[in-house]
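Researcher: Go.
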Amino acid sequence: MPDATLQMLYELARLGPTSANCSPGCFVFVKTPEGKELLRPALSAGNIEKTMSAPVTVIVASDMAFYEKLPGLYPLADARSWITSSETLAKETAFRNSSLQAGYLVIAARALGLDAGPMSGFDAERINQDFFHGTDWQVNLLINLGYGDATKLHDRLPRPDFEEACRFA
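Model: Structure:
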């Protein structure tokens, strides 16, 4: 997959809103054989084959020090002080918003004609050690990207109906 496609993917995904524009999501596009082999031992057995065969696996991470960028990202108020007032709030905000950004990345991938498979099923400590040692980044989830083989892709699975998943208040 060309780097230009991945750059366009990020350009689309970064347009989605996050709380106070905090944007804690960080993305590692694992596409080299060496990167895939570094990732392999952290994968659960059920994720190895599909990850090794995907052209790209995105490690979606949370920058746990995202609040340091808030003065530039949210110059409307002192949002940094809101977040740094509570370590729990900072962790929750990083996780919640990087998850949201992962969703934007999946939607952007689909808009570009890519197939996307978000995954749990990995050893987070191992990924953090192997890919993020000495940084403030922590893995949130993985997303396999590529152009799927139509003979191997499943039809879209059922989703809850409105009545099952929604209510008015």
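Model: The mean pLDDT is 96.
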